[in-house]
Design goal:
With 491 residues, this protein is an alpha+beta fold. It is 58% helix and 6% strand. α4 packs antiparallel against α5 and α4 packs parallel to α7.
């Protein structure tokens, strides 16, 4: 069959329609990673407040009014806020930004593979990318990770082209995209490692190019500025997403690096959330057939380093599935390289299509199943119960289901602040961990302006009655159900 140029756009359009109609959740709180999505949507909404400043993210769990917290560069929330200014308080603008980012990444990837291996092979690589969990999950989520992945793909492709062809336009493109990839997700700075390895393997003459080092210097300067900016916010407000390792650190303890079980978990996570079985088979096939492409080992080694650095998160689905997203690019290239220069027989083509279909259906099923978290649905019901009592903007104290301190492999300080109920109630206040009940907490928070004290049903309810003694100052709750106890602190 003759292959006509541009047919990949039809595939992108079909994927976009299916993703938007089938995978977009009815509620971000009741979706995979709903905790983070609620935070991101809240920051985007707060960006529209008169007192807001660009790149100063305001969260709703740090005081009686939205308060600044340390997190990533706010390009995604700014783009979402622009749409929110016209659409109003809706969740689809952020989902649309993510969808467009993934479509852009897939188109850039296709162009890169097509110029190296031909359009039919590029289509297979792009299809594998679109059917990966990163694309299916991030493409309809209100999180910056889809945009970060798009910047990662563009940074890698532009750098590879600049390595071969040079040019100021390509230089600016790879520098800007690499910087933004790191600004949006700091572990994406693995891209710089991959770029260095690529030149070490195939392009050492470029290592003497001053423009190369100028570009890397700008990337590091931009990311260093952002880290310093975030640190200043954290020191001023005490609120953080754990970007600089303070709070919920992503780094493992030294002993964890020598436990084989963690690496087995890492492999499992990569097969599910990044490289995928078909990508792994293609990677092994290229190695066995000695098909050489310097881009593959450069990407693979750099990605492996990033996964180990963030081992505390990358071994667990709920915490670090999105850290594996760059491996979808690696899988797509491995498949393209394995197919390049080969005329597939009908049985071989049928096997490839079957493998793509089985993997795609499995990931699609996972997106639909994992994207419906029972706890999110419970919180929506709880918010409906509380709505007649807690008005928008009423400062509230809300007990989080998470603890301030974690144990085991996750031992350390935990970012316990659950933003979901604050988001659903459209209010601000203080989030308390499930493992802390200070005797003076009630008086302190009441003096700070808290109007409501909300204790959702959870682990705290099962604690000994002595734990509740600290709440005696609240008096009798004004509302009690099987889901929550509610106290009024101020009229």
């Amino acid at each position: 069959m003759a292959w006509r140029q541009g047919q990949h756009w039809l595939l992108l359009a079909v994927w976009a329609v299916l993703a938007w109609t089938l995978l977009r959740p009815a509620s971000l709180v009741n979706d995979w990673s709903g905790w983070r999505q609620a935070d991101t949507q809240t920051i985007a909404l707060n960006t529209l407040r008169p007192e807001a400043s660009p790149n100063v993210p305001l969260v709703n769990w740090g005081g009686p009014v939205p308060t600044a917290a340390e997190t990533e560069f706010q390009l995604y929330t700014l783009a979402t806020a622009v749409l929110l200014a016209f659409a109003g308080d809706a969740e689809w603008p952020g989902q649309l930004v993510s969808l467009l980012a993934l479509l852009f990444a897939a188109a850039v990837l296709h162009g890169w593979l097509a110029e190296r291996f031909g359009r039919p092979v590029a289509l297979a690589g792009m299809l594998l990318f679109l059917l990966s969990r990163p694309a299916l999950f991030l493409g309809t989520s209100v999180k910056p990770d889809g945009l970060a992945l798009a910047c990662f793909v563009l940074g890698w492709v532009a750098f590879d082209r600049w390595r071969r062809d040079g040019g100021h336009g390509l230089w600016f493109c790879w520098v800007a995209a690499t910087a933004l990839a790191g600004l949006l997700k700091v572990t994406n700075l693995q891209l710089g490692i991959a770029q260095f390895l690529l030149l070490a393997l195939a392009g050492r003459q470029r290592l003497a190019d001053p423009w190369l080092w100028a570009g890397w210097t700008l990337v590091l300067a931009a990311n260093g500025w952002q880290l310093a900016h975030g640190t200043a916010i954290r020191e001023a407000t005490g609120l953080t997403f754990g970007i600089t390792g303070v709070g919920d650190s992503k780094f493992p303890a030294l002993a964890d690096l020598f436990r084989p079980g963690h690496y087995l978990a890492l492999v499992r996570m990569s097969l599910l959330w990044g490289l995928m079985p078909l990508g792994l088979m293609a990677l092994l096939w290229t190695a066995w057939q000695r098909r050489w492409s310097a881009t593959l080992p450069a990407l693979a080694v750099a990605h492996g380093i990033a996964l180990v650095i963030a081992l505390r998160y990358t071994t667990q689905e709920h915490l670090g599935s999105h850290y594996h997203a760059p491996a979808a690019l690696l899988a797509a290239e491995a498949l393209a390289l394995a197919m390049a220069g080969r005329t597939l027989s009908r049985p071989s083509l049928a096997m490839l299509l079957l493998a793509l279909a089985v993997g795609g259906v499995f990931n699609l099923h996972s997106r639909l199943q994992l994207g419906r978290e029972a706890q999110g649905a419970e919180l929506e019901v709880l918010a409906t119960e509380l709505a007649p009592w807690v008005a928008r903007g009423d400062p509230a104290v809300i007990r989080s289901p998470a603890a301030a301190e974690t144990v085991g492999f996750q031992r350390g300080t935990n970012n316990f602040e659950d933003p979901r109920l604050f988001y659903l109630l459209r209010t601000s206040g203080w989030s308390l961990p499930v493992d802390r009940v200070a005797a003076g907490e009630v008086a302190r928070l009441k003096a700070a302006g808290a109007r409501w004290w909300i204790e959702p049903q959870g682990p705290f309810w099962a604690e000994a009655p002595a734990q509740w003694a600290a709440l005696d100052a609240l008096g009798a709750p004004v509302y009690v159900s099987s889901r929550v106890k509610l106290w009024r602190l101020a009229p």
